[in-house]
Every structure is written in C-alpha cells, then in structure tokens.
Amino acid sequence: LGVSRRSSLFASRESIKEKARLRLREFDVGDRFSHLPLPKASVLLPLMVREGKLHLLLTLRSMQLRRSPGQVCFPGGKCEAIDKDEIDTALREAKEEVGLQPEKVEVICRLVPGIDKMNHLVTPVVGFIEDTFQATPNPDEVSDVFVVPLEYFVKPLNYKTLPYKTSTGYLSRMHCFIYDDHEHKMSFKIWGLTAHFAVFLALVIFGERPTFEVDYDLDDLISSSEKNFMNLYASLYKRKKSNL
C-alpha cells in the first residue's frame, strides 16, 4: 500500500503541476516588457503542491530593513549587473534571502510586470519548488517564511479592498488579505504589489471568478492585464515628461 499510495500521490501532484504549467505558459510574457526604460527588479513566485493543493511561498521582511520593514513579500529585489535577465535576478535574490538553490526551481514563466512605489519595473517569475524545501532565511532581510494555499487569493476568508491612487494620480484598488497561519500561530497581512501578483497568479491558474472585484476583464485576462499595465506605465511616463 505504501508504495502505490506514494506513486498515486506523485501522479496527482504531477497532474496538478501540469495543469498549472499549461495555463501559465499561455500567459508567459517572456522579455516583451524588458526594454521599458525603468530600473528593473524581479520577484520569484514559488509554487509547491501540498496535500493535493497549490501553495505559494511568501516571506516577511526583516524589521531592520529601511524599505517596507515587517511587510509580506515574495523573495526578490533589484537587478544587478551580473544578472542575465529577470529570471536570473529572481533566482539570485531567492537564494540570498531564503537559501533556495536556483537549480531547485523549475522556472515556468514571467508574467505581466508591475510598478512599485519606487517606480521599478517588477517582473514576477513563476517557478515550482519541492514541498520539502526548508527555508534558511537570511535574518538581515527576512524574519519569517510561510506558505498560503493559492486558492486563498480567489476565495479569501478575510479580505478588504483599499482604494488607492498611484503617484501619478491613477486610481486603482489595492487588495488586502489577512491570512491566519496555524503553523506559525500568526496572522499575516498581504497587500500591495505582492497581493496584486498573487491574485493574478491565482486567476491565471484557476480560471475562475474570485469572490471579490478585480480590475480585469476575466473573459480576456491576457489582453486586459497587459492593457492595465500599459495604462499604468503610460500615466507614469506622462508624469515623468511633465516633470522635465
């Protein structure tokens, strides 16, 4: 029984991954946005299968950090000269922050980027990692590492939306999730760009309507997500020009 149960668990884990891979590849933007003249950053969205469900690994930023201390985010950071591309940046940062070896990540795709409050072009890189991965957080950067079922980002138990105006006056909504983690006996607040990427990832993979409003045309997620991004970028570009 042990062996056959193990092999059937492996089979179902592989089929969950394969479904996700196929969906994600349809949304792969490759380097289509890499030429935009903004400083570059990348984050890794590490997916794993636990108990027959997709989960997402997140980190809690150290309180010692100057920027966004104590906030939830994905492993990631600014592009450095040694990085070949956004994927390299995400993998290097994940290794530095949580001890995830690049060869232990099966990179699937790059999704539509976002723009953070420092006006970096942030590219989300999606990859699979093993559910047995044991993080070794770098205490200078990360105070905690936890996982959330991906489904939580379309069917949350504790959610609110914050109306939000970008630096350019572009009106939008910001998702804010509170996730009670029983393993850590802690509640984590997931919001901002991190929540934006997690929601988009869940919409892509599950292809179902969330229990809350989103700024996408769900019947045409690919082009509406790219249009949203280009509107945001255009509003930033206009402001840059007017500041010259």
Task: Describe the structure concisely for a colleague.
This is Peroxisomal coenzyme A diphosphatase NUDT7. 31% of the residues lie in helices and 30% in strands.
Radius of gyration: 18 Å
Distance between the termini: 71 Å
Give average pLDDT, whole number.
Answer: 92
Give the helix level as a range of percent: 25-40%
| Strand-pairing-aware structural class | alpha+beta
Question: Strand count, sense and closure of the main sheet?
Answer: 8 strands, mixed
- Uncertain stretches of 5 or more adjacent residues: none
- CATH top level assignment: Alpha Beta
Tally of helical runs: 4
Q: What is the CATH-assigned architecture?
A: Alpha-Beta Complex
Give the CATH topology: Nucleoside Triphosphate Pyrophosphohydrolase
Shape: globular
Query: Secondary-structure element order, as H and E?
Result: HEEEEHEEEEEEEHH
Find the CATH superfamily.
Nucleoside Triphosphate Pyrophosphohydrolase
Number of strands: 11
Number of self-contained structural domains: 1
Q: What proportion strand?
A: 25-35%
Structure characterization notes:
Its cofactor is Mg(2+); Mn(2+). It is found in: Peroxisome. One of its GO terms (molecular function) is coenzyme A diphosphatase activity. This protein has 244 residues and is an alpha+beta fold. The chain has one domain: Nucleoside Triphosphate Pyrophosphohydrolase (Alpha-Beta Complex), CATH 3.90.79.10. The chain has helices at 2-26, 86-98, 192-206, 221-243; strands at residues 40-50, 53-61, 72-73, 76-78, 106-110, 114-115, 121-128, 142-149, 159-165, 171-181, 186-191. Strands 1, 2, 3, 4, 5, 6, 7 and 8 form an eight-stranded mixed β-sheet that branches. Strands 9-10-11 form a three-stranded antiparallel β-sheet. α1 packs across α3 (192-206). The longest helix is centred in the N-terminal third of the chain and has 25 residues, at 2-26. It starts with a helix and ends with a helix. The model has no long low-confidence stretch (mean pLDDT 92).
